[in-house]
Amino acid sequence: MRNLTLLTDLYQLTMMNGYFQENIHEDIVVFDMFFRKNPCNGGYTIVCGIEQLVDYINNLKFKDEDIKYLESLNLFSKNFLDFLRDFKFTGDIYSVEEGSVMFPNEPIIRVKAPLYQAQLIETTLLNIINFQSLIATKASRVCFAAQGNPVLEFGLRRAQGPDAGIYGARAAIIGGCSGTANVLAGKMFNIPIVGTHAHSWVQKFDSEIESFRAYANVYPNKALLLVDTYDVLNSGVPNAIKVFNELKEKGYKPLGIRIDSGDLEYVSKEARKMLDNAGFEDVSIVASNDLDEYKILNLKSLGAKINSWGVGTKLITSSDCPALGGVYKLCASEENGKLVPKIKISEDPEKITNPGYKKVIRIYNKHNKAEADLILLHDEVIDTNKNLTVFHPIYTWKKKTFKEYYVKELLKPLFLNGKCLHERKSVMDIREYTKNELNTLWPQYRRIDSPEEYKVDLSKKLWELKTNMLNEKKQK
Amino acid sequence: MRNLTLLTDLYQLTMMNGYFQENIHEDIVVFDMFFRKNPCNGGYTIVCGIEQLVDYINNLKFKDEDIKYLESLNLFSKNFLDFLRDFKFTGDIYSVEEGSVMFPNEPIIRVKAPLYQAQLIETTLLNIINFQSLIATKASRVCFAAQGNPVLEFGLRRAQGPDAGIYGARAAIIGGCSGTANVLAGKMFNIPIVGTHAHSWVQKFDSEIESFRAYANVYPNKALLLVDTYDVLNSGVPNAIKVFNELKEKGYKPLGIRIDSGDLEYVSKEARKMLDNAGFEDVSIVASNDLDEYKILNLKSLGAKINSWGVGTKLITSSDCPALGGVYKLCASEENGKLVPKIKISEDPEKITNPGYKKVIRIYNKHNKAEADLILLHDEVIDTNKNLTVFHPIYTWKKKTFKEYYVKELLKPLFLNGKCLHERKSVMDIREYTKNELNTLWPQYRRIDSPEEYKVDLSKKLWELKTNMLNEKKQK
To answer: Helix A122-145 vs helix A427-439: angle between axes, to the nearest 10 degrees?
Structure first.
């Protein structure tokens, strides 16, 4: 397991040293992680990377060489550096379950810990959760566009470094992909891996037909042939059909063809006709080449004859929105043994934080559809025997009352007093959990273009606290 | 050092097994790595990541657990898996020097190796070089826009995983950034790290002025204060000035203020006036908040009073073009001891490859400005005593003749017969090399919007080979 203790912004360490000098480093504080916008103007976000966050926290330790490096910066007191030698996370972390569907502005991770500890972990917590959540969400959009066809993650060569390839593949599977080409990710996470051959295989042989024969010879049960090295319809597909016939005679069942360039609509339709006419109605047509949810949606609407989608660059980088802007904001700080709410104000109203030690509940109707989320102060209780009225935090006249409903509390303990309570789940189990989560959403929140905005409201008590704090700060 | 041997696409392994079964796996082949477009519609690309590529190659080894995993896939023959146990890279790799400025369609890395070896390394070679080259290039664009002001890399929390943060910081420095906030990158690569405090520092204290005083108390020589937690002009700057005066009385020199939100043009101009009026003409104004080369260019053109630029998300992800599309294509294959050129054809003319075992030279004028690059067959010789005429590979009537010129061969050996010849350089030395490289470019290739296209031509011999091969393949 990698030790990423120094993977942090320098200001976390300068602040930690400052708090230490001021002797307030052990003050208990609460930070919320949340994001302000769903990726790709979408209607939801799948939270992913919790397991890697747990590993990161469990492996926090400043090694001798780390301390020596920090010493060399001439920024930190000797006392502080000695103090770091015994660093151990001793706080509480609550988080939503990995694979959960979440929405803007609600806490998805809540850290309550001594100030210096909560500060150190900010950067890597955000790094891990922002990236994996981004890719899981993107994958879920691509799979939605593919309308049940398998989507395969092919992006490693264009991923932003090795980790992006590895953890991006993990997140893509959780978001709904059926497999990845990434072998190391397959080994690490026990997820399905896929792959056949490249253009270079075809080029290596004297002719395309020889290359196809050789491939079918080695993998008679897995003959999926790449048909666009020279000319799909005049060479690739006719050659593939010859080899499929040879396989059929020997009693094997060919799998399909892959097209990686050109006019995917026209070529897939023509190839389908040629395959069908040759009696290969069952073999698949796999398409790749710069695909994303928008291109797949378009090809689907045009009736392209594609059964399976290989998606590379645009999935593994989430190319039209390559970052989830998750933030980590101080919302409470202990003073004389009591948690006092804190707020960050901004000229930009969207950047004002929700103060206080909070929790989040999801409100479901009796058909198990999610109707709204509500952010409350930590000690508030909902009596589900009574009607529940929620209101929009800005347009407060927008109200909704729930009569038959039940609620779930979304934040669950990952660490309590530094003790890890996280139970590992397989990636395929998390994938299943995500699938169920997505099924609790009404379709209008899932659509790719201009989805409805899911309700995330504040309890009356929290709304009043926030309004009062804003009025007070702005009077000064 | 991490062993990334399994970090590859599954099809590399299925092809390797196929070649092994066909007993052609030891055939010597040549692959070129090149890209087809510069990032962000720019005029050049900085090649970066060569050192990590070398580490990757040097650490290639299939461990027992890797073999066991591959066995579990039921795809590979026992012989092949045994063969992998002794895998070692024994080929040649030529590459441009790290930090070089390169252009579309020219080989930047050339691999000549037994087929099975050349195939295995494709994916991770591309992964490493694509990402770091992307970020180095993006950083260079941002620094160009900042017109000599320091640019600081602040993106770790939004980077696409830990590696993207670490190697992205390295690449950003090579591309011209003055520092990074990433502590681990600072330690690993001995590069400058920077950072002061966050909004949470200000929130933690009862008032902004107390937080500033506490910071100045701990870091009297490094007082750079974040002034936008509550209200920049009505609270942040006046409080900073008070604390700067207190520092001045004690004989310290304050460093500056940082603004992380709001109207950077207006606020920086007003803050500058306030600071100047208080006698702090020397202190810096650092700006951050969703910056990139376009926003910096705009703020510069409006006369914003900003001395230093913190750039996060949009640099570390290269958000408007989050992938460099580098590819790795078979260009020659040994047959009876002779390298035979290979070509990949596509309906899309841009995707047709340059066949043959090739090299690249750069043509400089006597003022050391780069005038054009020329791709030649490996055994071609340029006699620089004679005039040299180059021509456009598509619009062949576009010609240029060089009279007083000299040439440099760009590809240099990294590995010969598996032996590593790479000499490590410090990141700061590579950064200096890149700076010199950029100085060899005429300004029209460096501008951010609509740069001129740098000439990359084919030698007559190579052009004829390609044209003949295309005619021949298309006749069939």
So the answer is: 60
Q: Considering only CB atoms, which chain A residues are within 8 Å of B66?
A: 187
- How far apart are the C-alpha atoms of B209 and B204, rounded to whole Å? 12
User: Would you call B323 and A313 a contact, using CB atoms and an 8 Å cutoff?
Assistant: yes
Nearest chain A residue to B228 by CA: give it.
A346
Tell me if B454 sits within 8 A of B384, measured CB to CB. Answer: no
Bridge partners (DSSP) of residue B362 are: B373, B408
Q: Give the Cα separation of A316 and A322 in Å (integer).
A: 9
**Region A355-362 average pLDDT:** 98
Give B94-123 pLDDT, tens digit per residue.
999 999 999 999 999 999 999 999 999 999
Give DSSP secondary structure letters for A166-213: HHHHHHHHHTT-SEESBHHHHHHHT--B-----HHHHHHSSSHHHHHH
Q: Which chain B residues are within 8 Å of A7, Cβ to Cβ?
A: 156, 162, 165-166, 182-184
DSSP 8-state code for residue B404 = S
Q: Chain A residue with minimal CA distance to B17?
A: A218
CA distance A202 to A136: 34
Question: In terms of Cα–Cα distance, which of B174, B178, B177 is closest to B99?
Answer: B174
First vs last C-alpha separation in chain A: 50
Judged by phi (left if over 0) then psi (alpha if -120 to 50, else beta), residue A468 lies in: alpha
Q: Which residue has the higher pLDDT, A268 or B349?
A: A268
Residue range A15-31, pLDDT digits in tens: 999 999 999 999 999 99
Q: What is the CATH number of domain B196-289?
A: 3.20.20.70
Show the low-confidence residues of chain B (pLDDT under 70).
Answer: 474-476
Runs of H (alpha helix) within B360-417: none
Segment A304-310 shows an average pLDDT of 97
pLDDT, position A475: 60
- Pick B9's closest partner by Cβ from A182, A263, A343: A182
Which residue ranges make up each domain of chain A? 10-135+322-353+411-448, 196-289
Mean pLDDT of chain A: 96
Average pLDDT rounded to a whole number, residues A194-218: 94
Which helix (DSSP H) or strand (DSSP E) does residue A372 occupy?
Answer: strand A370-377
Search chain B and give the residue with CA nearest A32.
B200
Closest residue to B215, CB basis, from A8, A18, A66: A18
Reply yes or no on whether the pLDDT at A476 is more than 60. Answer: no
Tokens of residue A165, six digits: 């390839």
Q: Does domain A10-135+322-353+411-448 have CATH number 3.20.140.10?
A: yes
Average pLDDT in the A90-100 region?
Answer: 98
Residue of B5, B6, B11 to mutate when probing chain A, most A C-beta within 10 A? B11
Asked if this assembly's ipTM is beyond 0.90, the reply is yes
CB neighbour class for B18 (10 Å; exposed up to 12, middle 13-18, buried from 19): buried
> Is the predicted pLDDT of residue A189 greater than 80, yes or no?
yes
Segment A47-71 mean pLDDT: 98
Q: Is B322 in contact with A325 (Cβ distance < 8 A)?
A: no
Using CA atoms, how far residue A171 sits from A150, A158, A168, A185, B69, in Å, is 16, 16, 5, 10, 21
Tell whether the model's pLDDT for residue A196 goes beyond 60.
Answer: yes
DSSP assignment string, B405-425: EEEEE--EEEEETTEE-PPP-
* Number of other residues whose CB lies within 10 A of the CB of residue B274: 17
Percent of chain A with pLDDT over 70: 99
Residues of chain A positioned with their CB less than 8 A from the CB of B115: 204
**If you classify domain B10-135+322-475 with CATH, what class do you get?**
alpha beta
pLDDT in tens, B66-98: 999 999 999 999 999 999 999 999 999 999 999
Residue pointed to by tokens 């040649």: B92
CA proximity to A43, closest of A420, A366, A438: A438
Contacts of B277 (CB under 8 A, 6+ apart): none
